[in-house]
Each structure stands twice: as structure tokens, then as C-alpha cells.
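Case study 2.
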Amino acid sequence: MLGADVDTDVLVVGGGPVGLTARALLERWGVRVSSVERHGGLSPFPRSRLINVRSMEIYRQLGLATEIAAGAFAPEFGRIRFRDTIAEPDFATAAMVGINAPVPESPAVGVVTSQDRLEPVLLAAAEAPVRFGVELLDLAEDGDGVVALLVDHGSGAQLRVRARYVLAADGADSTVRHLLGIGTTGPGSLGSFTTVVFRAELDRWCARHPAGVYFTARGLFAPLYPEGGWAWFVPTPDDAGDADWSDVVAHALGPGAGVPAEVVRVQHWVMNAFVAEGFRRGRVVLAGDAVHAVPIVGGLGMNAGIADVHNLCWKLAGVLRGWAEPHLLDSYEMERRPVARRTLDQAVANTRLLLDAQERRREQLAARAAAPSTVELPWSERYFAQLGLVLGVAYRSDAVLLDDDAPPAPAGTDYVPSAAPGHRMPHFWLARDRSTLDAVGTWFTVFTPDPTLWAQYATEPWPLRVEPLPAELEAPCGIGPHGALLVRPDGHVGARWRDRPLDGAALRGALAAITGATDHGGRPL
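Prediction:
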């Protein structure tokens, strides 16, 4: 292999929320990580606006949820409002489920916050080096690892980093994806858009009617921070190069507003919609927008990327630490690519719901001089019906040992908790402020009503803990008094024994099968 200036276990390409989350997860496993980001610093733009309940569960596991929530909006901002202009009353509104209030299915609550508030928290969550202003130019792989050629835009110097694996979270226009020749499927570019960050006094119309998003006929308005600031999202106008953005925003606020807008910054961007044809090539794995770009409506994109790396990082750690075989990484694409396709479909459905509500309003306004004050929303007060996608993902891969009578993976938008293999472990309170999900970490977890039985089984070299399960949870988990659930480090059930196993070899066989050490001849009975 070519020589290198830096040697590391995993090189993370991309310093946005997905790359920074991967860095924190890998460091928690004791993996040596080095990160590069082509931009000169963290994003100054709000960009992603919503951290959903599943992502907050992941950040709770990392010990970051309290800090993230402290800088976010209050729960009452977990709502969308439809208005003709920002200065007029709502004609429709809907709550963001899992954001505006706790849901019984989770120990966490999602939040409305801006990406530029999230990224500093994630950057401080790990000590691994992050080099800003450093861009990846090329990759070369052999049997032992990957050498990445980088350029430091500050000095112009080139350097090589040798890594056993590369994790690319470098955005929708991913350099790594292009270098690997991985194509995409889906609509592609949906058009050019502009985000204008501005200051204006809008409290008289919004303070008593808070929301995370205001959809209007003149664009989408969103409050940026609890202490102030706004963003306006709109298709890029033809004369964008010559626009006086203060006047443009003031006009978009509507004739009833009559308030000046102080523009802070303007960003032009392209809305993409695609899923990559592959998530991995050899020792290079891609995540986030690099493999799935979705429309912004519903806040699904960044959260899907966070779930990607939560699925991936324990597998990388296992391979690097020697208790998993490299082909365990095959399960990453098997598990996450179907979710990416569902996520893209849901985002498109979200957009259609939004357009439907706006079209109903236009029809009302055209049909009568005095339009009704409200419009019945097509999703019946559920914000795009996403909990089934957010919490109800069920994986099917070689890293899951299905029950013999396993039903097809659910595909609906409603969430029905299940402890069947492949599903996220359901949330139950084990003690005050301690959830079943809090018992999951950098180890496999056996949940059982009979911890004495299961604790006697030897499980080296796999990291594993046994967690007592109250008897009243036997039925919800689908097990008997001597049964058990084997939960993977990402919180998904890997195997289930409805009753006592024949012997300790069943547990070892399941761990070996899940991590690729054997075929499914070791599946639990």
C-alpha cells in the first residue's frame, strides 16, 4: 500500500450532522477516527430544521439529548401552520407527532432546532480530529485498507490518510460516490431553491401562534432560534443575481405586514430526490445524503442519515475489534437501502399533502369572496403520519435471526410496537427515567425475566450484558418466564427465544450468526 501521512481506523469524509454523529459513535466504541470537511467550518446556515424522536433516542444514548433540547424551541413549536401570508390567520394547522409532546412509545421527544445549533454540540461530543477546509481528491484501496488523497485548501498542501475503512457522509453531490462510479435512481434534481436568513419583528402574528414552519403562498417561513431570527425558503427567482433580498423578503411577508427585513445571508441550493444504487464498495461505505437525498418536507433526510450511521458504526467497530467478520457490513445496505426508498416515497407523499392543502385553499379563494377560515387537512391532524417510518423500521438481513413465524416487514405509516427480531426494541420503563432503550449501548443486550439463567452462558469475544426484564413485560415482548431477547447495539432485536434455550450454545450461535462468524445453522430455537 502507498505510504501515508496519517494512519487511522476510519476516515470520515464530511463534517455535517451525519458525519459528526458517526465520529461520536465510533469514538464511543474506542475506534480511531479522523474526519475531514471541505468547507472551512461548520455550516452557518440553518438547513435541516427537525430532529425526530428516533434521532433524539440516539442522542440520548450518546448523552447529548439534554444539551440539544436546551438550545431548541419549546414543544409548542412542534406544529405547522398554513396561512395565505405570514401576517394572516391560519387556514389550517397540524401537530408534529413526537415533537409537540411526548409519545408513549419513546423515552425521548423530538425537537425543532437548526442544523447550525446541532453541529457544535456534535463537534464537542468527541475528541477525534476534524480537519476543516480539507477536501478528498481520490481513493485507492487494496486488501489492507484505503489511502485517501486530500488537499488542504488553506495551505494548498496535499496529504495522504491511510484508513482501514472510509465512511463517506459528504452530501448529495458526494465526491466519494462519484469516484466509486455509484449511480442513483429517482427523480434527481427537483429544482433550484434559495434560503434567506433574515431578522424581522413578526411576534405580533406568530408569538401567540408558534410553529416550527409556516407554509404560505409566498414561500415557507421558519423561526430559526428561540432568541430570534427567521429563514425564508422559496424557489430561486429568475433575477436572483440582481435581487434586493431585503425588498424581496418584505414583499413575501405580505402587504399586511409592513415590517422591514434585515437580510443576514443568502444561500442558493438544489433540492434533490434520489437513492444510490449502492451503499458500499469494498472498504468504502456511504451514508446520509450521499446515498439518499429527499425533499425537505417532513424533515426526513438528516434523520435518515443519523439512523444510517447508528446502524453502521457498531458493525464497523465489530469488524475492527475482531468479534465480527467483514461480511457483516453487507447487512448495512440490506437493512438501510429499503428504508431509504421508503423515506423518499414518504417525502414525496409529504410534498403532495402540502400541495393538496394549498390547492384546496386556492379553490376556496377562487370560489367565493369570503373564504372559510379553515381547511380540513388531508392527514387528519397527524404530521405526515411518520411514526411508522421513524420508529417502526424492521430490518431483514443476515444480521437478524427471524422467528420461524415472522410476518412480512411492516410498510405502513402507523407504528405498532413489536419485539420481533428486526424491530427496534420497544420502549418500556424499567425504572424512573430508565428505558429499555437506555440499557442498550456498546454491547449486545439480553433482556430476560430469568437473568440468572442467561448470565451463566459464556459469550466471549462478544461484548454482552444481561438486563432483567420485569415479568409484566413477558407478554408484550412475546417471551415466557425463561425466554429472552437478544438486542443489537443499535437497539434492534437480533434474535428471540420464547422460552429456555437448549443450552448456552444457542446464545453463542446467535451472536456468531448475527456478526457473520457462522451461517444461520447457529440460529436460536
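The chain is about 25% helix and 25% strand.
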